[in-house]
Amino acid sequence: MKRAAILLSAFFVLLVGLQTGKNVAAGEDTAVYLPFITSSTPPDPEPMTEFRGIWVTRFDWTTFGQPADPAKIDEIVQNVADAGFNVIFFQVRGIADAYYQSSLEPWSDRVSGVYGQAPTPLWDPLARMIEKAHEAGIQVHAYINVYPVWNGGSFCNNPPSASITPTPLYHLLLNEHGSTNGKPNGLQWTKTGDILEVDCGAYMRGTPASVFLDDHLIAVGQDLVTRYDLDGLHLDHIRYGGSNTSCDPVSEARFGASCFSAGYAQWQRDQVSGTVRRFYEEVVPLKPGLWLSAAVWPIHELDPAWGFPGSPQQGNITYYQDSKAWLASGTVDSISPMIYPGSAYNGCDAGGNYLEDPAPTSTDYWIRSRWQTLVEDFQAAGNGRYLIPGIGTGYCSFAEIEARIQMARDAGTAGHALFSYSGLLANGYFDDLAAGPYAETAVVPTITWHP
User: Is 0.85 surpassed by the pTM of this model?
Assistant: First the structure.
């Protein structure tokens, strides 16, 4: 716009400068042209193209059993915008509950304070996030936990009440598939020897073999993208609970043979991949330009040549999550390998001293060299789709984040995403991003392959 104004001004000066004068000898009018005036100010540079995402989980801004504060949404957007991000993965579904107004699933107690009850006064966290983020030029991708149906741990023997409206998914699955010896057939079961139990670790999860569950998930996705001005849909926990799940009756009936017999592992991968495909074919076309992305296990399959220590869990082997197949089949627009540490490693030694190049031990899995190896492995399988690798935010030095951002750029990824907001807030790294790797403005890459 600035350059256009300069050119118009110069053109106006040229017109005014066209004057007539008398040719004294011939007595004729003679055109006199003044010099053409240009500006020495260069045009504004084009912004770089880079996906700069941040995960905002339900734990980043809510507290269990307490009403959420709408002002937290405003604060999040302000901090994220100031830092230079351009995409927010905003969690709207944790355990088949809703962080928005839904006719399909109950309100989360982390929004209203009481499970199944709307907040008072009524407000919609997703609608507010979209409004504030779009005003700041930031995309919003609704982030959903796919297979979790209810909390695990102490909640395993304390399912949600069937009287809640809308009816909790736990009870919808129970009504659809029944139970065996008190165990809901529609949940994932673990098999340890001859013992079969409902898988109940961090979550109770629905079985990917359930067509009823798939239909419900697709309905949730369709509801979100048709009622809200979303830029993307982001799938998390799109996997089985472990290598010995799921041996539930629904799976055995659909497979047609005993669980974990020949071909069962690939069949399980196909169930998860089928859910992803349905989102891509039945939800994505409802909103032009909509991204479908997924957070995936950081190691797809271990390559012995990498020299990684121990026996790490692998997405394709441990959780039947064949994320590379989704890229190969073109049924996802981007994946985000979750290559970031838990509490065991944050870049410091036991005394809190920063280790720029720590010795690779069995627990320090997410040192820079391994992060780079995994990014390059996924990038090589991209098939023209986007890789948006995950970077942790709990490091004791911002140098760890900055180094990984640069490694992602050097590897040619479409961008990166940071997990999660609360880590950046606790460490005060928003200013470091703005003054460092995000000093230059960036726009989100476009999706060119959608019809």
Answer: yes
